[in-house]
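Good morning,

Attaching, inline, the backbone tokens for the sequence recovery test we're adding to the shared suite. The designed sequence is right after.
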């Protein structure tokens, strides 16, 4: 079978910028570790963060492409597909697993709506080999049509294995009900018909990697124990020859939702009723105070310290759980409240309680101390979660995915600090609109 290899052209010039603030300046911000930035002429950017245990590094390649970028009809699921294919190897390193196993490295990958990330944790002594290995597979991935079909079959098996998992089933129904045009309508793994058709899409797969796996669309984060100047030189040596060529996909914007959408779906298995109340939300923006206030509102209104949690979970025991999902996305997506009801006949009454809680926060100001405590918990939760090099590298991934830059962390936490009770109320009034609401009640199929 015929294989294909990415061709590269060596760039004539490389521009390296030490754009990071000084160590003293960094300590004034929220991010606690010193770092430097390397930017190459082809658009590739790397953040070098000194953090974590001695002798260890975390190496995370953030591809700013996920299922949102799958705009062609019939081709959903390819971002996730390439998460699998990237471990197939190259002409230089045909046995990727063998090389990483010999290093004793931990490596994995994940795909979501807005990104695909590849990460590795290893001893610092292997840094140059890792830079060589990772740059090579991003530029020179090689697989035959037979390899392609084998992996496509494995992905179909993954789809079938998870198809009846309750949360995935519910997530698919929520997306299908809430979105008409935007690619957030389909999940990361893709539509079943598209997954089944993947074995016939070998030629298309080559165009996918040519379009999206380009230096301008990928940001590298190295966190841990390393020599900064030597690491800069390695990045120049191994990534400078990567030919640019990323093209932004024409993602269709979702039109305004004119009326609430209420739907009951039947799950083909055993389950208590699960209610998902979803509202159209704005895109993530580190400087948008109302958007940041919306994320805070989720915790105050529906988190474990909220009045509705105390009432429905602890006091009356009417629900098994209730919780918010108010993190924002690269494009306007959804914020959600989800609960599992203990008695099926109580489902409508519990939904009414959720809508009443929303109305409360639209009409009244949150307690100033509760707001301060919640903002503090968000801030220190972020800081306390960065114990290892891998923790640090993954913690900075979200601003990179949404904005392309780690520096957006500072903007975000400055904005968070400025959020007032009035901002929280404004967020509830602006975004938790009944016209933008999609409520899915998932019940057991009789």
């Amino acid at each position: 079978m015929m294989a294909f290899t990415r061709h590269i052209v060596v760039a004539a010039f490389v521009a390296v910028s030490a754009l990071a603030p000084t160590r003293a300046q960094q300590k004034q911000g929220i991010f606690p570790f010193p770092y430097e930035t390397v930017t190459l002429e082809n658009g590739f950017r790397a953040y070098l963060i000194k953090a974590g245990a001695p002798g260890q590094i975390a190496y995370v390649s953030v591809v700013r492409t996920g299922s949102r970028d799958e705009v062609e009809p019939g081709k959903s699921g390819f971002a996730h597909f390439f998460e699998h294919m990237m471990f197939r190897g190259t002409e230089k390193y045909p046995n990727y697993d063998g090389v990483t196993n010999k290093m004793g490295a931990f490596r994995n990958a994940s795909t979501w709506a807005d990104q695909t990330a590849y990460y590795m944790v290893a001893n610092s002594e292997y840094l140059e080999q890792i830079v060589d290995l990772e740059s090579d597979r991003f530029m020179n991935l090689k697989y035959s049509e037979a390899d392609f079909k084998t992996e496509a079959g494995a992905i179909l098996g993954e789809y079938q294995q998870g198809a009846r998992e309750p949360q995935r089933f519910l997530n698919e129904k929520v997306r299908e009900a809430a979105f008409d045009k935007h690619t957030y309508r389909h999940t990361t793994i893709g539509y079943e018909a598209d997954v089944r058709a993947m074995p016939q899409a070998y030629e298309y797969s080559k165009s996918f990697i040519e379009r999206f796996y380009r230096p301008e669309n990928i940001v590298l984060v190295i966190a841990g124990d390393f020599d900064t100047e030597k690491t800069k030189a390695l990045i120049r040596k191994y990534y400078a020859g990567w030919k640019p060529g990323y093209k932004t996909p024409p993602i269709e914007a979702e039109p305004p939702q004119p009326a609430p959408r209420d739907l009951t779906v039947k799950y083909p298995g055993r389950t208590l009723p699960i209610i998902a109340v979803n509202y159209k939300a704005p895109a993530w923006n580190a400087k948008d105070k109302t958007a940041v206030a919306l994320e805070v509102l989720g915790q105050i209104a529906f988190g474990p310290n909220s009045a509705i949690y105390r009432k429905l979970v602890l006091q009356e025991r009417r629900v098994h759980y209730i919780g918010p999902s108010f993190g924002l996305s690269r494009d306007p997506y959804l914020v959600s409240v989800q609960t599992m009801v203990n008695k099926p006949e109580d489902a409508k009454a519990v939904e009414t309680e959720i809508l009443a809680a929303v109305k409360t926060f639209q009409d009244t100001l949150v307690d100033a101390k509760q707001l301060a405590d919640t903002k503090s918990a968000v801030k220190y939760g972020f800081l306390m979660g960065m114990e290892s090099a891998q923790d640090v590298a993954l913690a900075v991934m979200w601003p990179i995915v949404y904005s392309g830059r780690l520096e957006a962390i500072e903007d975000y936490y400055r904005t968070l600090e400025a959020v007032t009770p009035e901002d929280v109320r404004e967020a509830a009034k602006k975004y938790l609109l009944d016209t933008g609401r999609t409520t899915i009640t998932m019940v057991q199929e009789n």
